[in-house]
Prior knowledge:
Layout: E1 2-6, H1 12-28, E2 39-43, H2 53-60, E3 67-69, H3 78-97
Parallel strand pairs: 1-2, 2-3
Amino acid sequence: MVFVADSAEDRLQGNIQSWRKMLEHLTSLGMNPQTIPVVLQCNKQDLPNAVPAASLRTILRAGGRQVFEAVAIRDTGVRETLKAITREVMALSQAQLA
């Protein structure tokens, strides 16, 4: 799963609420959010009021999850995010088959 956070400072509370809702929803479906591959993409890093990606990871309590800075309209960080989540899913699939 890729969680795309809007890095604009005024979207911080919305990001926090969305992150919490995502975790709650996964739990309500009987899934453990700690075992599901999740990558954090911090979009709109080009904005003058952008919250740094490392700060968003800390604020969201995303722990050791991979985080990527992105500017989607410039295709910056998008492919890297896709590659990362693909690697995580493949690693989990291989581990489950072993």
